[in-house]
Specification:
33% helix, 5-stranded parallel β-sheet, 383 residues, 2 domains, Glycerate kinase, domain 2, alpha/beta
């Protein structure tokens, strides 16, 4: 069920009532999507009391996935359950449930997100994805018609081993011995056996399009961000390549170039092969759910942003897709980042928090104040 943007006033004269569409991604480690958007809106409103503002909370599969979707369903319920964190410690987690459509929603980062670990704990050789399996089992109690899983921002790079083990899959080596769902098992797995339970149709909403391994694969590109040194990257790469071949035998299809297979520590690979999940690009999927194009038709101008804007932001990330849609619609756009932006082909005016104060990344309160000041400046440009 896609959101419908209702009760928007009809387009009028830009100079009298300028319309701003604000759709920021999270500022990782500092602010969530909605908080960032509200701070910009506050500044615009202070500079121009006639401004009309629409704030959308957005996410492309990672942190903020549930928050963004909560506005798409009239009776969206945030349910609480227990799950494991990336190191197997019990914690409180959440999933989304829409009783009208019988649809369940999971944000993988709710259980196995990198922010749950302290910097000294971040090591993808020790982290696993069992917590996602815990959340999936919790949703199965509702017997959902469909399950959407947002993939992104994970601390693990286990190819979904922990998740599958939690769901009841048996992982065995060449001698028939059962293996644990941890990264160490990647290179030792010989066979996979599915549990007796049935699963609903699953859609994996992927924050990146990378395949599982290779030069642009999920292992090489993202495991260093999770704490892997070069030696561990190679070890994980070898293991993931072996695990991919086991999954190909299980699923009966080639998975080498699976777009999105490298998302969330290669969870996309496991969900596709073991559970038949459909993998979709998160940015476009989310913008369609939020009726973004309807909001864009209403708006005169667009503001977006995220904590770190780099060339990858223009390669399928939600901020890049927002800018692309704004450009196609002929709407002026601004992008706000935590760090200075220098990207060729960027179709927007840019602001960076660290240009105003290099302490911004260390203080959510300071980041909010700087976003408010940037909003004031943008709002003052149209009177």
């Amino acid at each position: 069920m896609k959101q419908s943007i209702g009760n928007l006033d009809q387009p009028g004269q830009l100079q009298l009532f300028p319309r701003y569409l604000i759709a920021c991604d999270k500022f990782k480690g500092s602010l969530d999507s909605l908080s960032a958007g509200q701070a910009l809106a506050e500044g615009i409103r202070e500079a121009n009391t006639r401004a009309r503002l629409l704030i959308l909370s957005v996410a492309d599969g990672g942190q903020g996935f549930l928050q963004a979707l909560s506005r798409c369903y009239e009776q969206f319920e945030l349910r609480q359950t227990n799950c494991r964190d990336p190191l197997g410690r019990q914690r409180e987690g959440h999933y989304g449930w829409d009783p009208i459509s019988g649809t369940a929603f999971i944000e993988s980062a709710e259980a196995i997100g990198l922010p749950w670990l302290q910097p000294h704990e971040r090591n993808p050789w020790h982290a696993h994805s069992a917590g996602l399996g815990d959340l999936m089992l919790a949703t199965l109690r509702h017997m959902p018609e469909r399950l959407y899983i947002g993939l992104g921002g994970s601390a693990s790079c286990d190819g979904g081993l922990g998740c599958l083990e939690a769901l009841g899959f048996e992982l065995r080596d060449a001698h028939g011995r059962q293996l644990a769902g941890v990264p160490e098992s990647l290179a030792r797995i010989h066979s996979l056996k599915a549990p007796a339970r049935t699963f609903p149709p699953i859609v994996a909403v992927c924050d990146v399009a990378n395949p599982p391994h290779g030069a642009r694969g999920g292992v090489r590109v993202y495991s260093p961000q999770k704490g892997a040194d070069p030696a561990l990257v190679e070890r994980l790469e070898v293991g993931m390549n072996h695990w991919r071949r086991v999954l190909e035998d299980f699923a009966g299809e080639s998975l080498t170039d699976l777009a999105g297979g490298g998302a969330a520590g290669c969870l996309g690979l496991a969900l596709r092969a073991a559970l038949g999940a459909q993998l979709v690009p998160g940015a476009d999927w989310m913008l369609d759910q939020l009726a973004f194009d309807q909001a864009l038709d209403w708006a005169d101008m667009v503001l977006t942003g995220e904590g770190a804007v780099d060339p990858s932001s223009l390669e399928g990330k939600i901020t890049g897709q927002i800018l692309a849609r704004a450009q196609l619609a002929g709407k002026p756009a601004w992008i706000v980042s935590g760090q200075s932006v220098s990207i060729s082909g960027l179709s927007a005016e840019s602001y960076a928090l660290n240009d105003l104060d290099d302490r911004a990344a260390e203080s959510p309160e300071l980041s909010l104040e700087l976003l408010r000041l940037i909003g004031q400046q943008i709002g003052s440009e149209v009177k």
